[in-house]
Amino acid sequence: MNAPTPHSALAPVQASDLAALPLIEKWISFATVSRDSNLALLDWTEAYLNDLGIQCSRTYDDSGKKANLWATLPAHDGETKVGGIVLSGHTDVVPVDGQPWNTDPFQVTVIGDKMYGRGVTDMKSFGATALMMVPELLKRQLKRPVHLAFSYDEEVGCIGVRRMIADMVAQGFKPAGCIVGEPTGMQVVIAHKGKHAYKTTVHGFEAHSSLTPLGVNAVEIACEFVAKLKSMHRTLAANGPFDPIYDVPHTTVHTGVIAGGTALNIIPRECEVTWEIRHHHMNSPEDLFAQAKDFADSLVPAMQAVAPGTGITHELKSVLPGFATEADSEIAQLCFHCADVDPQSGAGKVSFGTEAALFHQAGVPTIVCGPGHIAQAHQPNEWVTLEQLAWCERFMRRLADQLCVN
Ligand SMILES: [Zn+2]
């Protein structure tokens, strides 16, 4: 990915220069690991917005322990539904278990020009900076409404936001654009790849390991299947199609987990392979899956010749669509301006998935732009530079200039 620089240089930044610092500190202090409740963070945020006269609505998960928070800042003429933009971010963070942290991950620590804490990059700083701007947006009066969309369970497959978007559509909200503040180094990301995740299960036949001709070895057949996936990946990497704007310019096929077998002296009965296709717009995940399935099907007659009940099954575990927004669209142009980057060098496409695809799918033109870099996300000692945070604040201020009457 290109590393954009703003047209106008930013002065060296001290933590005390950051207006959003108290809000970032507050949000980081809630340990909202995806498996745990995010309601304490939401309660605090809702109280903050209520104090400013803004009402919020929630959509809960089935357990009632996690929720999305949606808040609308009305336009000066009272309009709440049509037009305007969504500032979107997830409230959950990945776990810190087993990671060697040098500081308390749930407390912001500033050392030199960096801020440390779980979620400072991915992605509480963007949401907190948006909250910091609310008083100013209200005071300067909005031409069109602005919506804040804070989700749960993004890190476990963009689960939570789906309910919020369904509710947004059901309530008749028709925003003209959405900015998802995932870490892009303040680059304006106009597309990302889609992801299809699968579980393939080889159903073999158990036998004593001294009697190999009588068994169907699920682990060995699974390995043949994994080798096929790898060869598909190699073909894509060698021959494309390529979209050079992506950091990884081709579609990828990857095996994440393989599990099977119980003991050395037993021919394994079952083996599971969890794998994914991450595709750009020039590849069809359905076609790639069909290639993999055809190969698996070709292995089955030999398996069934040994034991009739054997076979290979596939399960589509999750789908995250890709998205692509035109660089000359209104939302992209707005973001190039606010980020103060060149539309040529500042436009990016990334290989990681985000909630942007789901807003895009719901008909809302969306871009991804936020402080920090994905390389620091999910890491021990997750950090973001103060310069990136200042850049995000300046983005929000320039956005306010565009969105406000005064
Ligand atoms: Zn994230």
Automatic annotation (TrEMBL):
Lineage: Bacteria, Pseudomonadati, Pseudomonadota, Betaproteobacteria, Burkholderiales
A Pfam family that the UniProt record links to this protein: M20_dimer
Recorded superkingdom: Bacteria
One GO process term, biological-process aspect: L-arginine biosynthetic process
Domain Peptidase M20 dimerisation: 190-300
Gene: argE
Assigned keywords, A-Z: Cobalt, Hydrolase, Metal-binding
Enzyme Commission code(s) on record: 3.5.1.16
Matching Gene3D superfamilies: 3.30.70.360, Zn peptidases
Protein's name in the database: Acetylornithine deacetylase
CDD domains xrefs: M20_ArgE
Enzyme type, top EC level: hydrolase
UniProt keyword Hydrolase present: yes
Species whose genome carries this gene: Limnohabitans radicicola
PANTHER family recorded: ACETYLORNITHINE DEACETYLASE, N-ACETYL-L-CITRULLINE DEACETYLASE
Magnesium found in the keyword field: no
GO function term, MF aspect, one: acetylornithine deacetylase activity
